[in-house]
Every structure is written in C-alpha cells, then in structure tokens.
Q: What sequence folds into this?
C-alpha cells in the first residue's frame, strides 16, 4: 500500500512536475537524465518503474479508442460463433462434436480475453520483463551494474512507447481491411522506438551509434528467437489439447 501511495504521489506531484520533467529529460538528453537518477537524484525525476508502468497504462487507454483489431481476427471470431451456434442447435452430438464444441467455447473465451485491457497489460509487462533480461545479458560487459542497467531499460522502454504513440492516431482513419497500412504504421512505430533506443544507449553508455545499433539488433534477434520458441511450445501444447479433446 505504501508503494502504491508513493507511485500515485510521484505521478501527480504537480508542484515538482516530475512526470513532465522526466519526459523532457528523456527526450532531450536521455543519457544525462538516467545517469542523474542513478546518481541519486530522486526529487527531479519519476522512478523508472513508475514511468514505464504509467506510459504502458496511457498507451493501453488510448489504444482502446482506436480501431486496431484486424479483419482476420474479426472473421475468425465470427466463424467460431457460427460453429458454436451450429453445434449447440443439434439435438444430439457425437463424442467428436462434443469435443469440438468444448474447444470452440474455449477459443471464444480466449478471443474475448485477448480484447481486454488486462490481457494487453499482461503482454506489455511480460515484454518489459523479457526485454529487460535480454538487455542485461547484452549490455553486461559495459560499466553499469544490474540496478543501473534495469533503470535504463525501464526508462527507455517506456519512452519508446511514448514516442510511438502519435503514430497510433492514424488507426482512426483505417478500415478493417487496410492490412497493408496497419503493417506500415506498425513498422514506422517500431522504427521510431528502435531509433530512440539506439540513440539513448549511445548517450547513456557513451558508446558509438554503430555499437549501440549492433547491441540492440542482437537484442531483437534474441527476442524473435525467444518468441518463436514460445510459439513452438504453445503449438505443441495446443496440438496435444486438440487431440485429447476431439478424439
């Protein structure tokens, strides 16, 4: 409870204006700003964890007003609904159809959960945690320790999201079938965040842009490999579930 009060107090401390001072510092001179906090300046800037969680919350709040759901997901949900209705209206179901109905209902529940803010928040927190771990491994040979590396990553992760937020407004003008434009907006948003991360790393760690680029490229390669590994494991579990449910 005390940590929650401290977080709320930090966020709404208008007299100190810590939130906007943190944003300005991270936008103009991220290296100096993060080093100042790491050196003990707690009165001028928000705590990095507080900053990252706040920006994630703001991004989720804004994205709830935008049309980001793909046409493919909408069609799959509609097909799932039709299949459930068809099986439910049958007088008698075979063992295979009973398993199919159970599976379809589970898919429906999961699809609905995917659209909730709780699910998106969990995904963002998991991404923050995963990126932080990979970042520690990639940057461990530089002069900063575990705590200062973690603070850096929380600050930069949050600010990367903040920089990408203005791009989200273009989703307002998209239709459900504008998949190419959705892809383009996603790529632009990623490149903005990626470019900021490289620049911030070059300032904070006092390394060249090229070296920062190589390190972050390595981070995202590891992240992609990790993503496909998790996807592979989920696919195996899902295939086993389908086999046991339908047969």
A:
């Amino acid at each position: 409870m005390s940590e929650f009060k401290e977080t709320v107090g930090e966020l709404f401390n208008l007299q100190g204006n810590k939130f906007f001072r943190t944003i300005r510092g991270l936008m103009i001179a991220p290296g100096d700003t993060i080093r100042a906090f790491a050196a003990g300046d707690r009165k001028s800037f928000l705590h990095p964890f507080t900053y990252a969680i706040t920006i994630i919350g703001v991004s989720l709040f804004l994205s709830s007003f935008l049309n980001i759901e793909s046409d493919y997901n909408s069609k799959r949900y509609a097909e799932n609904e039709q299949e459930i209705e068809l099986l439910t209206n049958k007088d008698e179901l075979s063992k295979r159809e009973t398993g199919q109905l159970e599976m379809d209902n589970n898919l429906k529940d999961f699809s609905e959960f995917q659209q909730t803010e709780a699910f998106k928040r969990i995904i963002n927190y998991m991404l923050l945690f995963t990126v932080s771990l990979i970042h520690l491994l990639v940057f461990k040979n530089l002069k900063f320790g575990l705590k200062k590396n973690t603070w850096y990553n929380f600050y930069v992760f949050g600010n990367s999201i903040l920089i990408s937020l203005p791009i989200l407004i273009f989703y307002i003008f998209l239709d459900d079938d504008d998949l190419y434009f959705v892809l383009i907006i996603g790529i632009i948003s990623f490149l903005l965040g990626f470019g900021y991360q490289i620049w911030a790393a070059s300032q904070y760690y006092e390394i060249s842009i090229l070296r920062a680029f190589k390190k972050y490229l390595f981070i995202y390669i590891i992240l992609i490999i990790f993503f496909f590994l998790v996807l592979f494991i989920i696919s195996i579990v899902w295939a086993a579930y389908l086999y046991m449910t339908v047969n």
